[in-house]
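no rush on this but wanted to send it before i forget. what follows is a protein written twice so to speak, once as letters and once as structure tokens for the fold. mainly i need to know what kind of three dimensional shape the backbone takes. thanks a lot i owe you, the record is right below.
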Amino acid sequence: MTFSIRDLLWLTVVVAVFGAWYVDRQNLWSQNERIEMKARADEMKHVTQLDLMERYLRKVQASYEADSTMPTSQAPAPNPPKASP
């Protein structure tokens, strides 16, 4: 079986098209992977920030609850000012 120049040119075109498609797909896959990794990192950053905010709020709430006890003083309450008629 002999191949003509035309057959070799067609084979070259087919291989070139496949090669270009493959390189393009590799670029898209790697770009997609980078975007997904960045999205995961951003999500983890937000989750971490929310976690830190929740911890801080719990700490503030606990300190507020500990400080908001009723006074135990035996002193009488001050007299309110009298209303003038």
Residues 1-64 form one domain. The radius of gyration is 37 Å. The mean pLDDT is 86.
